[in-house]
Known about the structure:
This protein is mainly alpha-helical. Helices cover 53% and strands 7% of the residues. The protein has helices at 24-35, 44-51, 55-61, 68-86, 92-98, 104-115, 119-127; strands spanning 2-6, 12-16. It has a two-stranded antiparallel sheet.
Amino acid sequence: MALSCPMPGGDAISLSVFMPAIDPRYRRIKSYIEKNLDDSELDAASIQAVFGLSRATLYRLFDEVGGITRYIRDSRLTAAYNHLQQHPSCNLTWLLYELGFASERQFQRSFRARFGVSPAQWRERCRHREDGYECVLDFA
């Protein structure tokens, strides 16, 4: 989308602005990411190749959400959080590889940083929801 900004003296400059909420490429890329979370090779370069985008364009599209790498990581973490909430007996090693994490350590660190508890602690909390505990984390 191009915007024209009036400048003092009557001149105008044209700005090229990417607005993720309305750019159809953003929605298509988000959908692609969701469908390919299990691919540990899913990264900015692979998305650039699939969609024929320059690095700058891809990064601009996802700048408002913290960048493409962060978006992919957060999507994987949210999927893990939700899966463990619904299936607390799930094997963590299976889950981390199913969601495309390259290592257990990466998964553990990222999950704890994002949610404040380890995946094992979250899974245990969800296992006890039948005992009257809520299986919900408070995000501040």
